[in-house]
Design brief:
The chain is an alpha+beta fold and about 170 residues long. Helices cover about 20% and strands about 35% of the residues. The strands form 2 sheets. The protein has a 6-stranded antiparallel beta sheet, with helices on one face. Strands 7-8 form a two-stranded parallel ribbon. Helix 2 links the parallel strand 7 and strand 8.
């Protein structure tokens, strides 16, 4: 089942990617609870064709935000449409969060995590990373994140900021 959600924010993350934040009305918020690492499926009619694509949620469950990153794929109908057309105030159909790749934080635990990502694969990892750091204060994280270039590094500035804030927990 899809719900028509309003776009609250569209932000350029890199030359070929944007983040899109959705407003989830209070009456359906219970349908949109999620765990760090899960994804949303978006649906849009483009050139008279219903196109569906799944994107990992990059916000954290406790943030109250529902945000994904869309990276443009060469000849990708949905990603090209999104980068060129989506704007604040638009509506798009969104399915409930799903997926089995997720973290259930354990606040009293003391674990050592190693997270590995490349390119846009950072999106579920970013949600997991921020969740561990904020909800498992005794745990540590080693993040390995590869990219083609610094300008194509999604969340580069945010990761640098987080690494300073959580310097004793994040390498």
């Amino acid at each position: 089942m899809f719900y028509s959600l309003k776009i609250l924010n569209v932000q350029k993350e890199t030359p070929n990617s944007i983040s899109v934040e959705f407003e989830v009305p209070k009456k359906i918020q219970n349908h949109f609870s999620f765990k760090a690492g899960q994804f949303l499926t978006l649906k849009k009619k483009i050139s008279n064709e219903d196109i569906k694509r799944s994107y990992s949620i990059c916000s954290t469950p406790n943030s109250g935000k529902f945000k994904v990153v869309i990276k443009q794929i060469p000849n990708g109908k949905f990603s090209t449409y999104a980068l060129n057309n989506l704007k604040i105030g638009d509506f798009i159909d969104v399915a409930k969060p799903s997926g089995n790749f997720f973290l259930t934080p354990q606040p009293k635990t003391k674990k050592s995590y190693t997270l590995i990502a490349a390119g846009s694969g950072i999106t579920p990892i970013f949600s997991i990373l921020k969740t561990i750091l904020s909800e498992e204060p005794n745990s540590t994280v080693k993040l390995f994140y590869g990219n083609k270039s610094p300008e194509l590094t999604i969340f580069r500035q945010e990761i640098e900021k987080i690494s300073k804030i959580y310097s004793k927990n994040l390498t």
